[in-house]
Amino acid sequence: MLRIAILSTVGTSLLGNIERSINRLGLSQVSREVFGRQPSRLPINDELQGQFERWAEEGGDVLEDAVKALSTDPAGFSAELNSIIAFLRSLPARHVINELRLQFYPTDTGTSRFCERAITEYLRRYGNEFRGLTGIPTSAALVVDDSVTLRGFGRDVDWFREGLVDLMDKFVGRVIELRRGGYRVVVNPTGGFKPESAYLTLMAMLAGAWRVIYIHETFREIVELPMLPITIDPRYVDALTQIMKGKGTSKGILQQLGIDVEDLADKELVGITDSEVHVKEWVKKLLEILTNK
Description:
Layout: E1 2-10, H1 13-19, H2 22-25, H3 29-35, H4 47-58, H5 61-72, H6 74-77, H7 79-90, E2 97-106, H8 110-125, H9 127-134, E3 141-144, H10 159-162, H11 164-180, E4 184-188, H12 194-207, E5 211-215, E6 222-225, H13 234-244, E7 249-250, H14 251-256, H15 261-266, E8 270-273, E9 276-279, H16 281-290
Parallel strand pairs: 1-2, 1-4, 2-3, 4-5
Antiparallel strand pairs: 5-6, 7-9, 8-9
Helix pairs in contact: 4-8, 5-8, 11-12, 11-16
């Protein structure tokens, strides 16, 4: 018997698929107008992003139409659900699931949060139908946790400099928390922007996730990425830990330890001010989590 937790990023595939199906879905007039504007391609700063944010929080006809579309064909309308369903159906018969836990990570945009809300509403309303599609037992517990939006995730390139602490705290920490709770943790980075999804994949491997899954864009088949034994060079861990214990460490001391300080800086692990070396905040959070996992 297995307890599986799937953490999934969320993009805007739901919007794009509804756009292509306007004429056969029986949408409300407001939905026809909204989806006729092709919101799946909205720039981040478009004013309609704010409206999607409000629909995600308050509901309304547009959200209801999106949930209705999902209920007719969840795998066809949502790339995220498509990969989750395909993965669960691909598990060997010996893997009998008695609890499935799902949590979604939308990008920091109104359209992505809207898609996440629609997916969450579908799963909470149509749990039995979803179980049937995945092949898991009807008696299996289905838990859909509240979503988590990572600060700046998918919004601009500054996320890679400023949002990494949020990633370590909310995502890597969650993977490790679930592992400690006895779950097999699966990460699904199918949805969202590719650079951010690539980074989440790396973090999942560092945190010890059980599987990383992906729907191949060309062949439309589920792919399980090999869980490579990724780790941080122990010498760097020791050196960075020593730096963290004080306000700063001189470059000379690190060089005496055989550490290439410029290499640490090139890898964005430390900052250098005059002769002092300081560990980046996101690295502090990563070490704090990984050394206790």
